Amino acid sequence: RQSVRSGRQMPSLPQFAVPKQEPNVHPEAHEIVESFRDEIVAFHTAVDGRLVSVHTLINNIAVANNKPPMPPPAIAFLVELKQDQKTGPDGPIITEEQLLGAFKKLVPAKDDKQVFEDKVVSHIREATERLKYVAKVYPEIKEALTDFHKKIGGNSDRLYSWFCDLLPEGASVPKQAFLAMMMRVPPTMETVPLQAFLAGVRDNMDEKDTADKFIEVCEKHACQAC
Question: For 143-189, what is the HEC assignment?
Answer without folding.
Answer: HHHHHHHHHHCCEHHHHHHHHHHHCCCCCCCCHHHHHHHHHCCCCCC
